């Protein structure tokens, strides 16, 4: 990307990252009639999928001056194959994130999610044959070590299977994110916003399939039977319902702003903005629920945060240097 990055684009991407920060706190406050953490995760998947399906097209229309045909035009321009492939890739990372965050420490999940740009670089190397800088390979090796430290905590957490499962599922998030962004990069002319919305249709279908094929006894929903994982609790003063509604709106808005900003802001810089979620979200979850991860998670999170921060900053510096060189060449040719 040559030329200066518009300030408006940067502010839009930063705002999207900040809007996303309370997401995991709201996820923690969402409770269902089912006592199963596994099935409760799919209840959240179901409602957030509805949020993408409903709110993203609405926001897209508003962002295009209220023109109702704007979204349908974007769908037609994207085409059926790219629409469904993009939706499926986004759904994988979205579902994995929700399930993982519901079963283990938020700090563990967000730390692993922060390695998404490295997976994007690796997929770009394998599928698009793009050159991966040496500093990215070094950052990848360092991140493997920090993730192993977080995994060590999961294996030592009093034999709790949920932490092992949650941390394992979290590994799918950066992989799915990397695959999704590589797909977007392979189709630079495509507006992928309709794919984000369509992923909601896939997500809710998968959630219903899991809930209704699960053992009804595992729901333990006090008479609600199989639908217990889809029924928010009502004896908490409306906290669960409010958290669900806020999730649907905020996440849809956040990814709309990030998608718009990412059109003009280098991917390394967007990744740097997203790192803000790790400390902010961890503090919000601690404030709202008192969740305090073990020291291994804190050390691993700090290591990943520093590693990805340095990696993103180097990427930004190189991008600016390349842009400056391209401008100099253009000026010489024009002289």
Automatic annotation (TrEMBL):
GO terms for cellular component: membrane. The keyword Glycoprotein does not apply. The keyword Membrane applies. The chain crosses the membrane at residues 44-63, 106-128, 135-152, 164-183, 239-258, 270-289, 295-314. Keywords: Membrane, Transmembrane, Transmembrane helix. This is Drug/Metabolite transporter superfamily. The lineage of its organism: Eukaryota, Viridiplantae, Chlorophyta, Mamiellophyceae, Mamiellales.
């Amino acid at each position: 990307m040559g030329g200066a990055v518009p300030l408006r684009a940067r502010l839009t991407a930063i705002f999207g990252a900040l809007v996303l920060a309370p997401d995991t706190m709201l996820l923690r406050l969402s409770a269902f009639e089912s006592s199963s953490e596994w099935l409760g995760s799919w209840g959240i998947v179901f409602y957030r999928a509805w949020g993408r399906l409903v709110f993203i097209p609405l926001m897209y229309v508003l962002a295009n001056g209220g023109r109702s045909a704007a979204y349908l035009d974007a769908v037609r321009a994207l085409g059926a194959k790219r629409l469904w492939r993009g939706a499926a890739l986004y759904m994988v990372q979205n579902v994995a994130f929700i399930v993982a965050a519901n079963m283990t420490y938020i700090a563990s999940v967000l730390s692993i999610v922060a390695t998404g740009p490295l997976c994007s670089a690796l997929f770009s190397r394998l599928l698009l044959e793009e050159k991966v800088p040496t500093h990215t390979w070094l950052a990848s090796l360092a991140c493997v070590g920090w993730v192993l430290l977080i995994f060590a905590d999961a294996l030592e957490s009093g034999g709790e299977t949920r932490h092992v499962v949650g941390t394992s599922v979290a590994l799918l998030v950066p992989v799915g994110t990397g695959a999704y962004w590589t797909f977007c990069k392979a189709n630079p002319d495509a507006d992928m916003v309709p794919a984000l919305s369509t992923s909601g249709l896939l997500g809710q279908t998968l959630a219903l399939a899991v809930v209704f094929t699960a053992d009804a006894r595992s729901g333990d929903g006090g008479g609600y039977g199989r639908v217990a994982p889809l029924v928010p609790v009502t004896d908490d003063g409306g906290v669960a319902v409010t958290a669900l509604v806020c999730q649907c709106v905020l996440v849809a808005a956040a990814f709309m702003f990030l998608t718009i900003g990412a059109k003009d802001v280098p991917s390394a810089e967007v990744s740097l903005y997203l790192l803000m979620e790790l400390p902010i979200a961890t503090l919000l979850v601690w404030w709202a629920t008192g969740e305090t991860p073990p020291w291994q998670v804190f050390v691993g999170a700090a290591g990943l945060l520093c590693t990805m921060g340095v990696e993103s900053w180097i990427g930004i510096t190189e991008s600016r240097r390349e842009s400056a060189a391209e401008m100099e060449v253009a000026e010489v040719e024009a002289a």
